[in-house]
Amino acid sequence: MSLTARLAPVITITGTTLLVGCNGGGYGGSCGSYGSYGSYGSYGSCGPLYPGPDGIYEGALTNSASPQGTAVVAIIAANGTGRIAGADGSYYRLSVGSSGNNLNGSYSGYPQVAALSAGASPVSAQGSVAGTITPNGLNLQMTDNTNTQQSVALTFDNVYNRSSALANLAGSWTSTANGLTLTATIQPDGSFSAVDSNNCTYLGNFSLLDPTFDVYAETHVRSCNGAAITFTGLAALLLTKSTTGSGSELELLTDTSGGDYLVADFQ
């Protein structure tokens, strides 16, 4: 297989209950909950807060080419950096901030056919992000430099409110998509090595952003045919490997600043 192959995202919908809380991080707390259809649960003494936009999300992206919507996953860290990956191979790098329940920022869209090779492909689109934080997640509008718009509706996944620890990632992981397999070994300190079916090698590290939440920072160098490229991104552990074994999923969304990206759903 040529180096133009990429690991396409596998969209995972967990179906967890969305919590609305009184604290300042995530969508958790003691005030009550929303069920799967957004119905109100019981509330304590405080009203619902809409923290964010940090979190782990699933949802759909719609535009003129895909009015029916494309399934996406998104990871947004507390510092406002984020990634969105679509089931059709679309990929976006975000930088967002919030004021009240409004958010804004910028994005870069990565070409779906860019080569994962030594020469980074140019970013295909750049633009602005605007939207609102809702009790259930985020509603976003992405507008590029030609004023073309895309809408993204994201539902918050309560797995974000679980704590993170590098030791939880330790073990052997494999992701296979479009005929390309990537096998990684992660150490308890977050360092990892990997090799893909094109005999490219990967050396990198996962690190903690906030141990309160289930999002990790990631960076690695991929070496292939004597050329090396540095990737940075975000990851989320959807299940705890140490207690669930083969049912675990580690979602990795990582990219270069020039247009190459890697989406892996490790199991």
Q: Please outline the major beta sheet.
A: 8 strands, antiparallel, barrel
Distance between the termini: 22 Å
- Class by SSE composition: mainly beta
Number of helices: 1
Form type: globular
CATH architecture of the largest domain: Beta Barrel
Which CATH class of the largest domain? Answer: Mainly Beta
Low-confidence stretches: 1-25, 27-47, 114-120, 240-246
Give the radius of gyration. Answer: 18 Å
How large a portion of the residues is in β-strands, by DSSP E?
over 45%
Q: How many separate domains make up the residues?
A: 2
Helix percent reads under 10%
Mean pLDDT: 79
The CATH topology label of the largest domain is: Lipocalin
How do the strands line up in the largest sheet?
3-4-5-6-7-8-9-10
Using DSSP, what is the number of strands?
18
* H and E string: EEEEEEEEEEEEEEEEHEE
Describe this structure in words.
The chain has 267 residues and is mainly β. It has two domains: 51-160, Lipocalin (Beta Barrel); 161-266. The chain is 1% helix and 49% strand. The protein has one helix and 18 strands. The strands form three sheets. It has an eight-stranded antiparallel barrel with strand order 3-4-5-6-7-8-9-10. The longest helix is centred in the C-terminal third of the chain and has 4 residues, at 241-244. The radius of gyration is 18 Å and the shape is globular. The relative contact order is 0.18. Mean pLDDT is 79; it is low at 1-25, 27-47, 114-120 and 240-246.
Strand-helix topology:
Elements: E1 18-20, E2 32-34, E3 55-62, E4 70-76, E5 81-86, E6 91-99, E7 102-110, E8 125-133, E9 137-144, E10 149-156, E11 171-177, E12 180-186, E13 191-196, E14 201-208, E15 216-224, E16 227-237, H1 241-244, E17 250-255, E18 261-266
